[in-house]
Structures are given as C-alpha cells and as structure tokens.
Design goal:
This protein has a domain of 175 residues: Type I PLP-dependent aspartate aminotransferase-like (Major domain) (Aspartate Aminotransferase, domain 2, 3-Layer(aba) Sandwich). It is 39% helix and 9% strand. The radius of gyration is 23 Å and the shape is globular.
Length: 289
C-alpha cells in the first residue's frame, strides 16, 4: 500500500510530532505510574472516513498515553520487558520504516541480515553452528514454534507433568526418568528451563539430555532470559548443557534491551524445521492444462 501524496508532503510534520511524543514519554518515565488501573477506553464506532493526523495525536495524548504503563522504565518488573535503549528504539523505527518481509529470501538482503543476527547470537552464547532458526516476537511464540517443530519428531501429542525437586522449580530427574521409562510413545519431548520465571531455577541440562538420548526424547530448553547467564559465566555456568539441546527459545527484549516483543527460536535440526512449515497442496495440481 502506497501513502497518498499528502502523506509524503506531511511526512516531516509526522516525524516531528513522533519525535516529540517519544521524547516526552521517555523524559517523564520516572514520574509515570508503573502500571495503570484504567483498562478500557470509551466505546466508539469505526470511522468511515478516517481521522486526521491532528485528531489522532490529540486522542493519543489525552486518552491513551496517560494510561500506559512505565514498562520501559527501571521500576517496571512485569513480563521481564527489559527496557529498550535509544539506539535499539531507533533501529526498531527503521525496521518499521523499511517494512521488509524476511520469510523468504530472493528479493531483499533482509533475510541475510536475519541469518547473520542468528549467527551472532549463537556465537554470543557459545552455541555450535549447527543451530539455525528465526527471529520471533517473543519466547512464547518461539516455544510454540518449538512444539510445532517437535511435532515432526514426536508424531503424536502426549503431555506429562514431572514433579519438581522439593523447594525449587527444577525438574526432578529421577521422576523424569520414571515417566520416560513408562512412556510407550515412539517419540518424546522434554521441556526444560533455563531459568524458571518465578524462582530463576536452572534445570540440570546435562543430566536431562542424557535421559533424552537414552529414551529417544527431544530436548527443548526455554531459556527466555536464563541464557544470558552465559555472558557472565560462559558455557560452563548454570546453562551448561544447553548446547546439547535439540531446540532453544530466548527473548532479546529481556536483557538485550530491544523493543518488546522479540524472541528467538533455535534448533539443530534444520531439515525438520523446513518440514514443519512445508505446505503441500490438498488437491493434486496438473500443469498440463
């Protein structure tokens, strides 16, 4: 969709207003309420003719911005948003400006940029080059992608909740082995944590991977924010063994200070990743027409 001629003429005005709103919001972040109790807005019909830029910004300033949370500030602890740096925010503006589709290469360098970013992340976290994947909107979306990919491996869905070690959120490996031994499924998937959301507990990934190998199970690690521990302690810290996982999810908006949402899905099984998203026609198509 192309902007109208007036949109291009007024672009400097839009950018000035955008910059002013952004500056005002960031400068007052310390004075804003951490969270807003107002969760609804006045009901209104969808305008058939649209609203002017001035009307929209007036509505934004008066009825929306005052009730936003201070999620990018240091006092906000919900959802581990992280708080984007100015340069990361600027980069996000450019991404929206360029409006590239990275789902398939061939018409832009944008897909190559995504692949390069994933390569850098793997190097940053001491992961082998066998890991491939894609950027996602969050670890939640990446976890969903992991289950879809694992579907190719498992073949059927069976969910079993394994007990934790007492007074922690770590998987009890003894209980896990009992469940794996008892299972008659040809394929299994174990979802481990690095680290858990409420207690920041790290599962014993080396021991869990050994059990997965023994019982033909896929190991997925939800490392939404725990993987960043590797930046402090390297590959032999609390995330030791994550490089053995079949798939990993992590969130860049947690500790890399980029705008929310930005998650990453990584897997060492590239071919099965392709198979997970491959579309086959429901009806055979003949090209001899």
């Amino acid at each position: 969709m192309n902007p109208t001629k007036n949109d291009w003429i007024n672009l400097p005005k839009y950018l000035d207003e955008f910059a002013q709103i952004t500056h005002e919001f960031i400068q007052t972040i310390e004075q804003r309420a951490v969270a807003s109790n107002k969760q609804s807005i006045a009901s209104s019909d969808l305008s058939k003719s649209g609203n002017s830029f001035d009307e929209v910004t007036k509505q934004l300033r008066e009825n929306l911005i005052p009730y936003l949370s201070a999620s990018r500030g240091p006092r906000y602890w919900g959802f581990v948003t992280g708080g984007a740096t100015p340069i990361a925010t600027f980069a996000d503006w450019l991404v929206s400006t360029f409006d590239q589709n990275v789902s398939k290469g061939g018409d832009s360098i944008s897909t190559t940029i995504e692949r390069q970013t994933l390569t850098w992340l793997c190097k940053l976290f001491y992961l082998p080059s066998s890991f491939k994947g894609s950027l996602t909107t969050s670890a939640t979306a990446a976890n969903f992608l992991a289950t879809i990919r694992a579907r190719q491996y498992i073949g059927q869905k069976q969910v079993t909740y394994v007990a934790n070690i007492k007074d922690s959120e770590k998987i009890d490996c003894g209980e896990l082995e009992k469940h794996l031994t008892k299972s008659t499924s040809k394929g299994k998937m174990v979802i481990a944590s690095a680290a858990t959301v409420t207690a920041t507990d790290f599962d014993d990934l080396v021991k869990i991977k050994a059990l997965c190998n023994k019982h033909n199970a896929w190991l997925h690690v939800d490392a939404a924010f725990g993987i960043f521990e590797r930046l402090i302690n390297g590959s032999q810290g609390k995330t030791n063994g994550i490089e053995l996982a079949d798939s990993i999810t992590l969130d860049c908006h947690k500790w890399l200070n980029v705008p929310y949402e930005c998650g990453v899905f990584l897997t060492q099984h590239r071919q099965q990743l392709f198979e997970s998203w491959m579309c086959q026609p429901l009806i055979p198509i003949s090209l001899n027409m």
